[in-house]
Amino acid sequence: MSRAREFISPSDLTFSWNGCHRCLWLNYNHGVKAPAFFPLVGELSAMQEKHFKGAKSKDLHPDIKSGKVQDLGGWVKSLPITYNSNPSPYAIRGKYDLLMEFDDGTYGVIDCKFQGKNNDKSDFYSPQLEAYAFALENPLQGPPRQISVLGLLVWSPESPKGNPDSGFSLNLSSAWYPITRNPEGLAERIQDFIEVISGEVPPADSTCETCKFITDRREIFGGE
Question: Where are the alpha helices (DSSP H) in 32-182?
Answer without folding.
Answer: 39-51, 57-60, 122-137
